[in-house]
Write a structure and sequence with these properties.
This protein is α+β, with helices and mostly antiparallel strands. Helix content is about 50%, strand content about 20%. The chain contains eleven helices and eight strands. α3 runs antiparallel to α4.
C-alpha cells in the first residue's frame, strides 16, 4: 500500500548540502499521514533527511534494523539521516511528519541532543504536551500554505521551535511516560474525584514519587490538572453544543448546577450562561 509517508521516501533525494556552501538551501517537508490498521511500510526505508515523526492518534510498531518498539499517541520517533526504518500500524493511526535535509549547524545540534549515538530514538510527550506540539505543528503547516516573503527562513524558524519544544518537554524514560497515561485517565474521567493512591498505583509509583513525577511532566498537581481539563471541556461544550447547563455540569463532574456556576464564574469572571452568550455573539 502506498502512502505519502513512503512515496516521499522513494523520491530521488538531492545530495546532502556541503556544509561550507551556504548558497544551498535546506530541503524541508511536513505533512500529516492517516492510515488504517492494516497499513505498513513495505520495507525499511532510509533517506538523507532527519526525520521527526510524532504519533498523533492510534498505535503501531517502529522497526529499526532488528530492533522493534511499540509506539502510540504521544511517542515521537527521531530518526537520523540514512537510518533504515519502517512503521507498521496496529490500529488506525495518524502521524505528524517532518523531513529535513541541510539544517544549519545550530538547529541540527538541537536534533542531535535528542538522539543517542546517531541511532533512532523514541521519546514521549505527555498528553498535554502532545496537544501543544500538534498545535505548533499544524500552525507551521498553515504558514507554509500562505504566501511568505521569506519561506525558507520561516521554515527554519518553525523547525527550531519544534525541536526546542521537544528538548524541553520530552520524557526519555518509561516511568515519565506512564505518568502521562494517568493524565489521560484524568482527562477521560472528569466526573471522578482525584485519588492520589489509585493514580500512583496505576503508574506503578509510590504516592510521593507519583506526585513529583506528575508535577515534572505537567507543571501542576493532579487536582490542578483536572480543574484545567474541566474548564477546557466546559468551554468546548458551551461553545460547540446546545447542551443545557445541568447536562454540562454533570458531564464535567458537578452534580449541582449552582456549584458549577460558582466555580466557572470564579475562574472566568462571569457565569457559564453569560460566557456562552458572549461566545456566540462574538463568533457569529
Amino acid at each position: 500500500m502506498y502512502s505519502e509517508h513512503n512515496i516521499i521516501k522513494r523520491l530521488a533525494w538531492p545530495k546532502l548540502a556541503d556544509k561550507e556552501d551556504e548558497a544551498i538551501l535546506p530541503e524541508i517537508r511536513g505533512f500529516i499521514g492517516t492510515h488504517d490498521k492494516d497499513w505498513e511500510d513495505e520495507r525499511q526505508w532510509s533517506h538523507p533527511d532527519l526525520e521527526i515523526t510524532v504519533v498523533l492518534e492510534g498505535s503501531g510498531r517502529f522497526v529499526h534494523e532488528q530492533e522493534e518498539r511499540r509506539v502510540e499517541a504521544g511517542h515521537v520517533a527521531l530518526i537520523p539521516s540514512l537510518s533504515a526504518h519502517s512503521f507498521h500500524a496496529m490500529t488506525p493511526i495518524r502521524f505528524g511528519v517532518v523531513l529535513v535535509d541541510g539544517l544549519p549547524m545550530h538547529v541540527r545540534e538541537l536534533f542531535e541532543r535528542l538522539v543517542v549515538l546517531g541511532k533512532p530514538r523514541i521519546i514521549a510527550l505527555s498528553r498535554l504536551d502532545q496537544d501543544r506540539y500538534e498545535r505548533l505543528f499544524r500552525e507551521w503547516l498553515r504558514s507554509r500554505s500562505s504566501t511568505l516573503k521569506e519561506p525558507v527562513r520561516n521554515d527554519l524558524a518553525w523547525i527550531e521551535i519544534l525541536l526546542l519544544f521537544l528538548n524541553e518537554h520530552s520524557h526519555p524514560d518509561q516511568k515519565s511516560f506512564t505518568v502521562s497515561h494517568t493524565g489521560n485517565y484524568i482527562r477521560r474521567h472528569l466526573q471522578e474525584p482525584i485519588v492520589i493512591g489509585s493514580l500512583a498505583e496505576m503508574a506503578g509509583l509510590s504516592e510521593e514519587g507519583f506526585r513529583k513525577r506528575f508535577f515534572k511532566a505537567y507543571g501542576m498537581t493532579p487536582k490542578q490538572y483536572q480543574q484545567m481539563c474541566r474548564l477546557e471541556e466546559s468551554k468546548w461544550l458551551l461553545s460547540s453544543t446546545d447542551k443545557d447547563m445541568q447536562a454540562i455540569a454533570e458531564q464535567i463532574g458537578f452534580s449541582q448546577l449552582h456549584s458549577f456556576s460558582l466555580w466557572f464564574k470564579k475562574t472566568e469572571g462571569c457565569p457559564p450562561s453569560e460566557w456562552r452568550t458572549r461566545q456566540r455573539r462574538d463568533h457569529h
